[in-house]
Every structure is written in structure tokens, then in C-alpha cells.
Design a protein that fits this description.
heterotrimer, A alpha/beta (about 240), B mainly alpha (about 290), C mainly alpha (about 350), B: mainly alpha, about 75% helix, C: about 350 residues, ABC transporter involved in vitamin B12 uptake, BtuC, two-stranded antiparallel ribbon, binds adenosine-5'-triphosphate, binds magnesium ion
Chain lengths: ~240, ~290, ~350
């Protein structure tokens, strides 16, 4: 396998807290990799490291074989790796369309072309009705979709999604999963943090499980899900830390 | 440079430093509790200086006598500013918060100019005039009193903030506003208290300063810029940090004033601000 | 291949624009160019309109950085002052024509803006505001002491014959009106273009959420520096205009904090982050200050600042969007009523 993204021995400390300890894994091209683990496991911190928002104390990250360790987050985004945030962050003084147009302007200087592209992307994520609405009034589900649309607007090759189903109502989860699959079918590699394990196992090719900053399992979804270390981590069994 | 001169500079630097600290502590208090920078802070100082000077020239009352009254009146003024102005912009955009106190600054400065003109007023022959000699060093009395007064006031404030129930609520709000609210602390009253205390500190500083510094409409601008630097060095919202940084700046400013023209003596202080804030954006002693 | 466009109408900088608005804009400009014909023997009105245009331009330039990019500066007087000093010193010491001097002023102010911006743009919110204050105050103090630039006394421009080639007009001041108006028209068109272009999108994004903009792949610093260069450069030319208009520059008149205040206040009052805001703000505020200057003349009592201060507070507390937001909410109400 020739991985598009590789994380090698990454460690991060916040003062006395070891948020990530020696985490390594690789993501194959066009794969959907799920990242699971209880609150505080270090999942979002891991995204931060990959995207250049958090500087690791040790370890390195490689995108398509080239090191991206220590590069600024905008530089990393320009080389095709884009994230969404756990709490969506729309540009609140802009409409939905303007939000995505801004993202599409990373690929062109022509606003008219960017706007047309943004319309297409909003249509793909099912927000075409909202184009001219102010994003400040968006619901949680719409914000999650808008964040994804914005990331897609930059035409990424690798997309990191931090809890795309968080706050999405049960009726819309199937839609969202279908959307993620469509994105993958366009050739995008996806790394998805998600607490909804059932939904995630439905689409992920592979899972990694984390707890207390350590990777505890890595493999096919059904193997990881039945791994008793993950079960214990979620249930908070005292033995888990030992 | 003789040892005597050195000592003299040091003492007058400390005197000014404690005044800076007192001004900066008020700023830090408001910032800590409300996350707002009071751009009219210097004008609060100007008001209290005018009050002391006119009480002296018109009523013959020495600043030592009027100090408590000025402090109490300024407390009321601070509370009024909170309820009439700041409360309305609290939840608003950052620019409206900045411009609310900025407007107050422009207004108070223009009001002073309108009422008193651009003339300089000062107090001559107050009770605390003259100099004292301590061990061969001649020191101006008003500056010693200012230093002592500022230290006392800082100590009282420290006790209030760190040793009383009210102080604990105040700190709770500044550490975690949302949590404090859910615990039933009345944030509105704490905000008002912060403004009142900050203004009262300024009242004390203004009274002490009026003994040896002239007052004019823009006097606040001189001191408040230094106060911003002080607060930034000490970490926004940190009272102890403001105290330490104020004293350090007082000394630096006196020494740089000795080596270059006195108009430029603050330029090194400002340069220091930029340097420190760039390398440690939360200030020297602020939390990370 | 051009993208299929839903809008068949006119576009400007990639966005549709209404023909009606273009016609209104140029009709308004045309009328403004004709007005001096009727201002013969009315020096007060002529001066009022000239300074309104000048301050509207200054407001526009502050708005690029403060309104669109959300970087609030209260030190913009330094760029105005630097511009005034640049062309004046170039003329006095090297005989450089003031028009060329104006271009130099743009370059010097823009460069100063970038040099100041590189460190200061690392700072956010209040830290940035205070940094601009501190830098501007330092420059003011240094210029007040520096004998090369005339120290506290300032610099006086020698009187040259009236004429376009000298950028000086003595008995008939109408050319100043035309120059200020032309500056306003050019800068306003530029801002309209910028607002609709890629730069405008990115700047507004930075104002809303700088980290999100970065996460998409833009360098916020780069765009903030671009905004700063535009903003400071335009102010530099305004400084040259002022120097040629008044023929005397002193630190207190060109570098003083009150200029920083008014330059920021104009767009905030009129409507921060809008094209019309600085123009509306300048019309209202400069009218107030010029009339109060006449009525309380010579007293040095700053009645205009008194009124400004009160207005800023009232607007900050009750109408943070400025006059423009009042207009649009009134319009919305009117529409609702009409339906
Ligand atoms: N900037 C920071 N400074 C200090 N501690 C931090 C910082 N960011 C995260 N942490 C801590 O690091 C740990 C890991 O946080 P992280 O956000 O990565 O967890 P997570 O797995 O994403 O959890 P969740 O499922 O709740 O989103 C937590 O204990 C968190 O409090
Ligand atoms: Mg997380």
C-alpha cells in the first residue's frame, strides 16, 4: 500500500497532560478511515497536528510522501489537506453561497467562476435552497454541511472531518453518510472522527481507536469494534489505563 | 553616575512606578472581569486630578484631605459609566465595545478642554511640599507620599480581591464567566463593582499625582498609554502582574528620561511593549 | 471556458451590478463636478465640501483595514502624517514636484504600514488596537523632537505660483475641490471593486474567523498586509493633499491622535464595512465640525470633539452598525409596510 497520509510517532503535551503519546498510522489513498475514542482521547488534537494548527513535541507527518511537519496550516491546506472543525465555524456575516465561494477562491482568482463552483458544491451537500441565506441563521445540521461544503470548495485530496454527525438529527444521518460516500467516490480520501460508532462502521474501510492519547487498535471496523480494549476505554474500566 | 544620583533616580522611579501600577490595576480589573479595555481610563485620571486641584485652589482643601472623597466620587462615576454605557455594549461586536469607551475618552477630553481650556493647572505649596533628606539623599516629599499611598491602596485592593467574599466572586467571574453565572453570582453587580473599584483606584492615583504633576485636558493620554503597556506586560487581567510591571516601567522611564530628552522617555517603554507582546502575546506574567 | 452564468446582466469584478446604480453613481459624480460653478464667492461652502471629500477618502482607507478586514487601528494618523512629511521633505530638500511627492508618499506610507503590520498583525483584538496606538504615539513623539523634520515647529511649504504643475492654488481654491473629489471617486470605485474581488472575500473572512480562513488555505497575514498597504498608501496621498492645501505641517495637526480618532469614527458612524458608510459619516461629521468651528471660532474649545464623543458613545450603545444599518432597517420596515 502506498499511503497518501502518514503519521509517525507523534507526541503532544499540554503542560502536564499527555494529549498524544507516540501515535502512528497511515491512510491509504481513497480510503475512509474512522477515528474513534472517548472524550478527551486526543482525536481533535491529532487533527490539529496533521493540519499544522498544533505543533507536536515529537514525530512527523507526511502527505503523499512529502513531509508536512512544521508547515503552517494554510500551506498544508493549499497542498490539498483540509479539515473541518468539531464546532462548525461559518463566516457569520456571509451567506451560505459566499462562505463556499470564499473557499473556492483558493483555486481561482475569478469570483464568477468561484461562485458557480460554490453553487455546485452546495447542491452536492444538499444546501442549494440556502444559497442566499445568511449563515448566521443556520441550524446545527446545516452548519455541519456548510463546513463540509466549504472544505470541498477548496478541492482537497484529503479531507479530515471532526464529528460530521455531531448534532445531526437521526433522520438525516443516512443522508450524511451517503454524502460522505459520494465524496469518497470522487477520489477524496476521508479521515472521520465520530462518536456514532454504528454509523461510522457502516462506511469506514478501517478504524483506529484511541484513548488517553494512545492508539489502542487499528484494523477492520468489526475487529476494532469487538476489541475489548476499546470497550473498556468507553466504559471507563479502571483496568483500561493500566 | 554617583551612587547618590542612582538612588535618587531609583526612588523617583519607584514613586512613579507605584502610581502607574495603581492606574494599571484598575485597567486590569476591568479587563479581567469583562474582557474590555477601558480607553477612557486616562480621562478618569484627568477628572480626579482636576477635582483635587480645584478643591485646593478654590476651597483650600489639600489633596490629602480630599483623597477619600475623590475616591468615593470616582467609584460612583465608574459604576454609572458601567450601567449607562458599558452594559449596553457588553454582548455586541468588538468594535462597538472599543468605541464605547473610546467615545467616552473623546467626550471627557473635549469636555475638559471646553470647561477649563488648554491651560495647565497645578498645586503649589500643598501640605506635602518640599523635600526630605534620608541618609544624604534628597527626595521630593510628594513622590514619597505618592509611593506610600499607592502601596497602601494596592494592599487594600489586594485584601479586598483575595481575602473577601466579594473579591472571590469577582475572581470567579474573571476566571470563568459562564460557570460563575450558573453558580448564582450576579455578574452585572460584579461588572459594576469592577468599574467602581477601578475608578476609585484612579481617584486615589489622581489625588496623589496632583501633588506634583500639573493637570491639563490631555494629561490622561500620557499616563494611560503607559498603563496599557503596563497591563500588557503584566498580562491582561492580572493584578499582581500590573503591580510588578508598573514598578518596572516607572524605573525604566525615569532612567531613560535621564539619558534622553524627557519627551522621548516613553519611547523605550513602548518599544518594550511591542517586543514583549510579540514574543509572549499574553504578557510577561499572564496565564498562557 | 467561461462558467455558465445565471445572470445575463452587467457584471463588475465578477459580480452582477445594477445598471440603475451605475447611472445614479455617475450622475451624482457629474453633479458634484458641476457644483463649483455655483460656489463663486462662497469660500466656506467650498472648503466644507473639499474637506468632506478628503475625510471621506480617509474614512474609506481606514475602512479597508478596519471595516473589511476587521483590524481596528487607532493609529492611522501616522500614515497621513508620514505622507504629508514625505512629499514636503522631498520638495524642500530635493525639489521634487509635489505630484511625484504624492506618489512617494503613497509608497512610503504603504511600506511603513507593511513594516508595522508584519509584527503587529500577530496580535489580536485589544492587543492590536493598543499596538497601533503605541506605535502612532511613538512616531508622534519622535517627529516632535527630530530636527530634520522640523521637530515641534513642523515644516512650512514655500508659496509657489498657483497652478496645477505646482499643486498650489491660492486665490481660487476650486482646483483643490476637484482634486479631492477625484480622489474620492477613484478610491470609492477601487473599494467597490475590492469588496467584490477575491481580496474582499478573504478580508471579510478574516474579520469573521481568521483561523477558519487559514484552514482553507489562505495566509491571513498576507491579506492583512495587502489591506494595510492599500489603507496606509491612500492615507499617504491624503497627507500630501493636506500639506499642499494648508501649506504647513506640524506634528499636532498631521500626526495627532485626534486624526486617528476621526479617521476611524467616520466609517464607524456611517456604517463600518460598507462603501457608503465613510461618505455618509464624513458628510455628517465634517458638517458638524466645520459649523461648530465657525460658531465657536478661536476659542480652541473643541466643540466638535465634544459632539463626536457623545455621538460615538450613543452609536456604539444603540446603533453599532452606524447610519447604514439604520437606513437598511428602515427600508426593511418600509417594504414590510408596503406589502
Ligand atoms: N490547547 C489545549 N491546551 C491544553 N489542553 C488541551 C488543549 N487542547 C486539548 N487539550 C486537552 O487534550 C485532551 C485531548 O483533547 P481532544 O480535544 O483532542 O480530545 P477529543 O478526543 O477530540 O475529545 P472529544 O471527543 O471530546 O472531542 C483533552 O484532555 C483536552 O482537555
Ligand atoms: Mg474532539
Amino acid at each position: 500500500m502506498n499511503p497518501i497520509l502518514r503519521v509517525e510517532n507523534v507526541s503532544v503535551r499540554f503542560g502536564g497532560l499527555q494529549a498524544l503519546g507516540d501515535v502512528s498510522f497511515a491512510v491509504a489513498n481513497n480510503e475512509i478511515l474512522g477515528v474513534v475514542g472517548p472524550n478527551g482521547a486526543g482525536k481533535s488534537t491529532l487533527f490539529g497536528v496533521i493540519c499544522g494548527d498544533v505543533h507536536p513535541d515529537a514525530g512527523s507527518t507526511l502527505l503523499a510522501g512529502k513531509s508536512i511537519t512544521g508547515k503552517s496550516s494554510d500551506e498544508i491546506a493549499r497542498s490539498g489537506l483540509v479539515r473541518t472543525f468539531q464546532t462548525p465555524r461559518p463566516f457569520t456575516t456571509m451567506t451560505f453561497l459566499e462562505n463556499v465561494t470564499l473557499a473556492a477562491l483558493t483555486k481561482t482568482n475569478d469570483v464568477a467562476i468561484a461562485r458557480e463552483r460554490a453553487r455546485l458544491v452546495l447542491d452536492q451537500v444538499g444546501l442549494s435552497d440556502c444559497c442566499d441565506r445568511p449563515s448566521s441563521g443556520a441550524s446545527t445540521g446545516q452548519r455541519k454541511r456548510l463546513d463540509i461544503a466549504r472544505a470541498l470548495g477548496t478541492e482537497p485530496s484529503v479531507l479530515l472531518l471532526d464529528e460530521p454527525l455531531g448534532g445531526v438529527d437521526p433522520g438525516s444521518i443516512a443522508d450524511m453518510l451517503a454524502l460522505l460516500k459520494r465524496i469518497r467516490d470522487r477520489g477524496v480520501t476521508l479521515v472521520v472522527i465520530e462518536h456514532n460508532l454504528e454509523a461510522l462502521t457502516g462506511i469506514a474501510d478501517r478504524l483506529i481507536a484511541m484513548t488517553l492519547g494512545k492508539k489502542i487498535a487499528d484494523g477492520a471496523p468489526k475487529d476494532v469494534m469487538s476489541d475489548d480494549r476499546l470497550v473498556r476505554a468507553y466504559l471507563g474500566d479502571d483496568d483500561a489505563a493500566a | 553616575m554617583t551612587a547618590e544620583l542612582l538612588l535618587q533616580l531609583l526612588v523617583s522611579g519607584l514613586g512613579m512606578g507605584f502610581i502607574f501600577a495603581l492606574i494599571a490595576i484598575g485597567l486590569a480589573l476591568i479587563y479581567g472581569v469583562m474582557n474590555v479595555v477601558n480607553f477612557a481610563h486616562g480621562e478618569f485620571l484627568m477628572i480626579s486630578m482636576y477635582a483635587s486641584v480645584f478643591a485646593f485652589t478654590l476651597g483650600g482643601l489639600d489633596p490629602v484631605v480630599t483623597l477619600p472623597f475623590v475616591a468615593v466620587a470616582m467609584f460612583g462615576f465608574g459604576v454609572a459609566v458601567y450601567y449607562l454605557l458599558m452594559k449596553r455594549v457588553l454582548g455586541g461586536a468588538m468594535h462597538s465595545q472599543i468605541f464605547a469607551t473610546f467615545g467616552l475618552m473623546v467626550f471627557l477630553q473635549a469636555a475638559a478642554q471646553f470647561t477649563f481650556g488648554a491651560d495647565y493647572y497645578s498645586i503649589n505649596h500643598s501640605w506635602l511640599g518640599g523635600t526630605v533628606r534620608i541618609g544624604g539623599v534628597t527626595l521630593p516629599m510628594p513622590q514619597i507620599v505618592a509611593a506610600v499611598g499607592a502601596i497602601l491602596c494596592t494592599a487594600c485592593l489586594y485584601l479586598l480581591v483575595f481575602r473577601t467574599r466579594v473579591g472571590r466572586s469577582l475572581r470567579a467571574v474573571s476566571q470563568d464567566r459562564v460557570a460563575a453565572l450558573t453558580m448564582g453570582i450576579d455578574a452585572d453587580r460584579m461588572n459594576a463593582l469592577a468599574w467602581g473599584l477601578a475608578a476609585a483606584c484612579i481617584g486615589v492615583a489622581g489625588s496623589l499625582l496632583s501633588n506634583f504633576y500639573y493637570v491639563f485636558p490631555r494629561v490622561g493620554a500620557v499616563f494611560v498609554l503607559v498603563a496599557y503597556v503596563t497591563v500588557a506586560l503584566g498580562g491582561f487581567g492580572s493584578i499582581g502582574g500590573a503591580l510588578a510591571a508598573g514598578v518596572a516601567i516607572g524605573v525604566l522611564q525615569v532612567f531613560s528620561g535621564f539619558f534622553m530628552t524627557s519627551t522621548l522617555k516613553f519611547v523605550p517603554v513602548f518599544a518594550l511593549y511591542l517586543l514583549i507582546v510579540l514574543f509572549r502575546p499574553t504578557g510577561l506574567l499572564g496565564k498562557q | 471556458m467561461s462558467a455558465p452564468s445565471v445572470n445575463k446582466g452587467l457584471t463588475f469584478a465578477g459580480s452582477p451590478i445594477k445598471l440603475r446604480n451605475i447611472v445614479l453613481f455617475f450622475a451624482g459624480v457629474g453633479i458634484l463636478y458641476l457644483i463649483p460653478q455655483f460656489l463663486d464667492g462662497k469660500p466656506f461652502e467650498l472648503r466644507l465640501l473639499t474637506v468632506i471629500f478628503l475625510y471621506a477618502v480617509m474614512g474609506q482607507s481606514w475602512n479597508i483595514l478596519g471595516g473589511y478586514a476587521g483590524q481596528i487601528s487607532i493609529g492611522h494618523a501616522m500614515f497621513f502624517g508620514l505622507g504629508a512629511y514625505t512629499s514636503t521633505i522631498a520638495f524642500l530638500n530635493f525639489g521634487v514636484n509635489p505630484w511625484i511627492g504624492g506618489l512617494l508618499a503613497v509608497a512610503v506610507s504603504a511600506l511603513a504600514g507593511v513594516l508595522i503590520g508584519i509584527p503587529c498583525f500577530r496580535l489580536r483584538s485589544h492587543y492590536f488596537v493598543i499596538a497601533t496606538l503605541v506605535v502612532a504615539e511613538s512616531i508622534f513623539l519622535i517627529f516632535s523632537e527630530w530636527s530634520f523634520v522640523g521637530a515641534a515647529i513642523g515644516l512650512e511649504l514655500p508659496i509657489r505660483p498657483s497652478g496645477w504643475e505646482n499643486f498650489q492654488f491660492h486665490r481660487n481654491k476650486i482646483p483643490y475641490y476637484y482634486i479631492a473629489l477625484t480622489m474620492l471617486v477613484v478610491v470609492t470605485i477601487f473599494v467597490i471593486w475590492m469588496e467584490r474581488s477575491k481580496i474582499g472575500f478573504v478580508l471579510k473572512g478574516i474579520r469573521d474567523d481568521e483561523d477558519a480562513v487559514r484552514s482553507l488555505g489562505f495566509s491571513p497575514l498576507r491579506y492583512k498586509l495587502i489591506a494595510m498597504a492599500f489603507s496606509a498608501g491612500i492615507l499617504g496621498f491624503c497627507g500630501t493633499f493636506y500639506a499642499q492645501y494648508v501649506l504647513l505641517i506640524e506634528p499636532p495637526t498631521v500626526l495627532f491622535a485626534s486624526i486617528s480618532v476621526i479617521v476611524a469614527l467616520i466609517p464607524i458612524f456611517g456604517g463600518i464595512g460598507t462603501v457608503a458608510g465613510p461618505i455618509i459619516g464624513s458628510v455628517i461629521l465634517l458638517t458638524i465640525s466645520e459649523y461648530s468651528r465657525v460658531h465657536f471660532s478661536g476659542s480652541g474649545r473643541n466643540v466638535d470633539l465634544l459632539i463626536y464623543g457623545a455621538l460615538i458613545m450613543v452609536f456604539a450603545a444603540y446603533c453599532p452598525g452606524g447610519v447604514m444599518s439604520m437606513i437598511s432597517s428602515l427600508r426593511a420596515r418600509f417594504r414590510k409596510g408596503a406589502v
